[in-house]
Structures are given as structure tokens and as C-alpha cells.
Amino acid sequence: MARTVCAKSMLLVSLLVCCFIGLTAVKYDPNWNSIDSRPLPSWYDEAKIGIFIHWGVFSVPAFGSEWFWWNWQGIKNPDHVKFMADNYKPGFTYAEFAPKFTGELFNATHWADVFNSSGARYVVLTSKHHEGFTLWPSNVSWNWNAMDVGPHKDLVGELAGPVRNRGMKFGLYHSLFEWFHPLYLADKSSKWATKHFVKSKTMPELYEIVNAYRPDIIWSDGEWEAPDTYWNSTDFLAWLYNESPVKDTVVTNDRWGKDTLCKHGGYYTCVDRYNPGILQNHKWENCMTLDKSSWGYNRRSNLTNYLTIHETLTVLASTVSCGGNLLINVGPTADGLILPIFEERLRELGQWLKVNGEAIYSSEPWTHQNDTYTPDIWYTSKVTADGSRHVYAIVLHWPLNNQLHLASVTPQSEMSVNMLGHAAALEWKPRPRGGVVVAMPALSPRDMPSQHAWVLKFQHPA
């Protein structure tokens, strides 16, 4: 009898606690003051590195960029018009590219393995770009989706599982607008007085992908023509944060209307390839491409178009030092292959992070972002369990005579210096004009912990 009473009492307490939590849970209203008050889920800032994938019908012509359709028929770029006239029959339409977007060599497991090998902690796939073609079987995109034409597969669903099975978060890019959709063009002609496109296309798609795939990130785009009030952005975000199946963990960006960029949202993207070089007061992301000229696969790219691993590490160091995340884009081919040069860069990045990831993941900006004396030195930091702080100096160029001058580090009597991946402590001495001089170790190339950048760890610095 006593056990029964005890069990009932515990049940009552549990119900009261649940009711109290429910009553005190934050409810976000559909306005920016409320939406912007939501704390950013901590996993995102800790992750630091993600992979962006631009894949769609634009991967078939693979000429210029993922904006091929707009360049060809929107602004009638002469190069694009000539390309079509020289290679395709008169009257050929963009829709005729879709059956050639076959994805027959797409292997979601291999993709996930490549992305995981890079050290990335999240992946963002273009569920729909500005062409309007959806990579999932959308209920509001009849015959213009990957199930009805082309691969005849749910590409979003196929990739989500393998990505998550490897411990990475899975996010979805989604374009609010579509270049040539008649309902969008009609709303545009009305100067946004009507919302036919939003009600019948954009919002149904967003609710659909959230409920079907439970993305960890909604990476919105295509916001620049219309105000957020046209898109009903705050209504959607309030639902996303209050009621959706990912309400507690989902992360969003700032592209929700022409006046929201770099002002509203979970984290800021501001402009493509945004890398301010100074510390920002709001969480931000540098979305950038390994192919300097294009987000989608571009057959015209040559070797000089691709970032080297040193260039990639330079962007990573400057981004993370200033409080940003790095979202690194690859553009697969229409048949579903990741180019070997993309794979090589990602695997090189992963090898570097195996040695030096301590300075990147879950790091925080330090007092200084880059050194005030020696160029190409970027700093990050971490607070340890005992409350002390470790500072990391990412050295992008090995110093002459093995003597590294750092003006931003104040010498402390008990300070120790190590190179990540190298066991022995490094000698250092105060610098006459302030700072320290670190003696870099004399290592043969095969003994180098890294080949392209090196990280010094300062314990107990000022």
C-alpha cells in the first residue's frame, strides 16, 4: 500500500512539474522582436564547419553557374544565348534539361562519408533553388520535382539518413522565390498586394520539408525582391520555434525578406562569401565555394578556379577567429558525382582538423583576432573546466629562421607553449617590444604535424 501511495505521489509531482514547464515555456510571437529573442541552439556555434551542396537541374547545362536559366532567358546573357544556339535545337526549353538530371551515380552513403571525412559537423542541401525544381516529392510542385522527373527519387530523404547516421546535423536550403513562376510574377506585378505564390507554393513547401525531414537548419534564400511581410516569414518562424517537430533545436539564417539580411534571424549571412575580418556582435556564417566562380557544378572551371587547401584553411582561420561558422560549398554533377578535386580538398581539411580541431570546434573568439605584428596569424580560445583559458594561434606561414614573433600574447611566468600534434613543449621568451618570440621546432617534412598551417597552444596566457 505504501508503494502505491508513493508512486501516486511521484506521478502527481511529475504532472505538476510538466504543467509548470508548459506554463513557463517561452512562446514566440510573429514579430521580429520576439523571433530575434530566441537563443541560438548551442550546437550550431560549437560545430563551426558545415558542407553546402548546390545540386539541381542547373547541374545539367553546368555552364557558368547555378543561375544558368536566369542568365539565358532572364537577362539574355550573350554567352549563354550563344551556348544554347550552338548546342541545342531551336525552341529548346529549360524544362527539357530535367530528364537529364538523372543522378544515376548518386550514392548518398559515399557523399556522407566524404562530408564526414572533412570534419564538417553539419550538411546543408539545396532542397529547391530559384529554378523551382524540388529535390523531394513536393505536393505543390507537380512534375517539377526529383520524384516525377529525372532521378525519380526522393533525394532529400536519401541523403538525410546517411548524414545523420555519421553524427552530422542535416539542414535544408530553400529558395523563397522562383524566377519564372507565373504566380510569383503576378504577385510581383501587383507590388506584393497579392500573395498567391506564398500561399500556394512557398509556405506549403516550407511546412512540408520541416514535417517530413525535420531539418536542423532552414537556410532560406531568394529574399531580396519582396518584404518579409509578403513572405509571411515571422508567422512561419513563430510556428517553427513554437510548434514544429524541431522547435527546440532548429537553426535559421537571416534571408527572410529584402530588409532582413544581416538584421534578423538566428545567425547572419549578410552576403555570399561574407568574411568581415573583424569580430562581429552577432553569430554569423561565411558561406563560400571551393570553386571560386560557381556554387553549382561548372564544366568551364579550370584548376585555378578552385581554392587550394592553404586558401581554404586561411578562410577557415579568419572566419572562426572572428566568431563565424564556415559553410563550404561543393557542386555535384548531374549524374550525382562529387568531383575528385572537391573530395581531395574536403579530405585534406579533415586531415588538418584531426590534428588541429581543438583550436576550431567549440572555440571562442579571443581578445585579439589576428596578431598585431606578424601577418596571417589568427587566434581562437577556450575556457577549460577549471576556469582558465587556453589561446590558440593559427600560423598560416612558417616563420623565417624558425622564430615566430607574436605581439598580441603577453608573456606570463607560468605560461607554456605547445604545437598541436607535436609532443615537446616549445621554448619562448619575451619580445623586447612587447609580446613573445616562440622558437618553432626544427622538424623534417615527414615529422610535421600539418603541412599547410600550424597551431600553437598557449596555456595560462594573459
UniProtKB/TrEMBL annotation:
Q: Which InterPro entries match?
A: FUC_metazoa-typ (IPR016286), Fucosidase_C (IPR031919), GH (IPR017853), Glyco_hydro_29 (IPR000933), Glyco_hydro_29_CS (IPR018526), Glyco_hydro_29_N (IPR057739), Glyco_hydro_b (IPR013780)
The region annotated as signal peptide is 1-25
Listed name of the protein = alpha-L-fucosidase
Q: Which residues form the Glycoside hydrolase family 29 N-terminal domain?
A: 25-358
The similarity comment for this entry is: Belongs to the glycosyl hydrolase 29 family.
- Catalytic class of the enzyme: hydrolase
This protein's encoding gene: LOC106808754
Annotated catalysed reactions: a neolactoside IV(2)-alpha-Fuc-nLc4Cer(d18:1(4E)) + H2O = a neolactoside nLc4Cer(d18:1(4E)) + L-fucose; a neolactoside IV(2)-alpha-Fuc-nLc4Cer(d18:0) + H2O = a neolactoside nLc4Cer(d18:0) + L-fucose
